Amino acid sequence: MPDTAVRPREAGSRPQPRRPRLDSRPAQRARRNLSAYGFLIGAVVCFAFFSWYPIAREVIMSFQKTHLGTTSWAGWANYHRIFADPTFWQAWRNTLEFTVLALILGYAVPFFVAILLNELRHARGYLRVLVYLPVMLPPASALLLFAYFYDPTYGLFNHILSALHLPASQWVQSPGTTVPTVAMISVVIAATWMNMGGATLIYLAALQSIPGELYEAAELDGAGLWSRIWHITIPQIRLILQMLLALQIVATMQMFVEAFILTNGGSGTTTISVVNLIYQYAFALSGASNYNSASALGVVLMLVLATFSGAYLWLSRERG
Amino acid sequence: MAGLTAPASAPVPAPVPAQRRAAARAAQAQTRTLVSRAQLNRPRSKLIYRVVLAVTVVVFTLVFVGPLYFLFSDGLKSATEAVQTPPTIVPAHVHLNTYVRAWDEMGVGRLLFNTLYYAAGALAFQLVFDVTAAYALSKLRPLGGNLILALMVATLMIPSLVLVVPQYLTVASLPLLHISLIGSPAAIWLPSVANGFNIFLLKRFFDSIPDELMAAAAIDGATPLTILRKIVLPISRPILGVVSIFSLVAVWKDFLWPLLVEGGFNPPRDTLNTGIWQAAQAAPQNLIIAASAMAAIPTLVFFLIFQRNIMSGLTAGSLKG
Hints:
The complex is a heterodimer.
Chain A: H1 26-62, E1 64-67, E2 70-73, H2 77-84, H3 86-119, H4 124-132, H5 139-150, H6 156-163, H7 182-207, H8 212-220, H9 225-236, H10 238-253, H11 257-263, H12 274-284, H13 291-319
Antiparallel strand pairs in A: 1-2
Helix pairs in contact in A: 1-13, 2-13, 3-7, 3-10, 4-7, 5-11, 10-13, 12-13
Chain B: H1 2-9, H2 17-29, H3 37-40, H4 43-73, H5 79-82, H6 97-105, H7 108-140, H8 145-154, H9 164-172, H10 186-193, H11 196-207, H12 211-219, H13 224-235, H14 237-253, H15 256-262, H16 272-280, H17 285-318
Helix pairs in contact in B: 1-2, 4-17, 6-17, 7-10, 7-11, 7-14, 7-16, 8-11, 14-17, 16-17
């Protein structure tokens, strides 16, 4: 799910002391192994079918071609084809643009919102529920609502703009000329509204773990509000900040449903993302779906995302 | 103040005394934040605090509840009022009928049933298969268990959206068995079991249960299954709650996967999420919004009831780890 899903740190980071096993006799050990495999079989079969095999298959398919029902090796042809497709570069540009904008909005805003909520002595429960409320909506509900707000003729947002005597906007339907495009900013606003609750709550919990004595000491030294945030708050939760950064990069680079529902891949291709393009390659191009090109694109995205997930796992290991 | 902040810091998977002590320390530390109490009690600061509080409450309510107001009220408009310029803030005429029509014409009831069915099944499969697997990996520790665990957790590095093409082809024709799961609930249930995050969370929790508890039962002749049912599961209720919430919300919010494997059937097998999107392609604006509002109600109610568990479960996964 392309939101700020919480990922764990790597298993086994807590060292397990070797305990002496009670069943030392081989027959007992064999019986225990056997029942253990019985417990494991359901999950292992599901992982094998729906996770391990698809990973291998994606890599294999990216080097194959299928013509009239026969499959043969294609070398790097699929990769050459997608690299030659201008939409490929457009999709990566959009995805990076979305990621950067989503980080500016979706990474920094929750941080300051969390600091604010942590300082307030009233209405905390209420405010926290509010921030998290949109996270619980089905994405289609939230996005169909935003598509309605964004409508250039009868949408609420243009009504608000005109009430403020500002020029009307085409929002998600704006043609892409500027960087960042208005269309992409509109997608990011909707995405941030939907997803910022998760990051806010994680920051909030992190802020509550900062020892109060540190602030006290800083205050005695005459540190102002900003320098307290800069010299105490941020260093104290630096690791959480880094982990969430990696997580959010992974989540936002998989952006799909936002662009899919708001613009159906864009006015032209102004908001098409990499996952949108995988979908188009595989399922949407009329009659000529090409699973092999889609797999090649999937492998490229997999490598990029695995780098960031790896960084996340490494950071969270450091934490433990 | 400590009472107010308790939900987020409630130590969800914390059966170990050391963790509980750490949580208690954290709770104490909360009494002092960026701005000190003494500083807040000065008259000028008090005024600033009041203003900031009021502005925050008003802005947050507008930003987060405002859209929800329109989600529920715009579905009460007539088809023409919903697309008139400028838009009305309060519906001029209330058409409750719009909700009734949206329910009938967009098949919301059927979609709701489908979604509940998929979510409940996915939850059941995950609880049975992932809990037993994590238990075996944590407590029975069979030969090769560490390799299996590593392979399962490694899948976390590769988000499932990237694998959508080979996963779809696999579900369309299972290897060795050559069965197609397309259009069957199993196409959602079984892949949901392959969740490295569940395995990781559960195993870590089971690791913290002392082996001595189980050894005593084993000496009394209890089988591993009895130990799991009578000892491990009752202690593990908090983590089972976290896993359940994650699993239900994931099915409820998923879009591309149910669109691919359950889309295009008649009567529809879509989830609420994909079903209202598809119906929206050819429906008037007021019906779209009314259907979106109805689709949002179950999760909103679920959230308002279980908000403490949901919000603390979320932070537990990342922080208390």
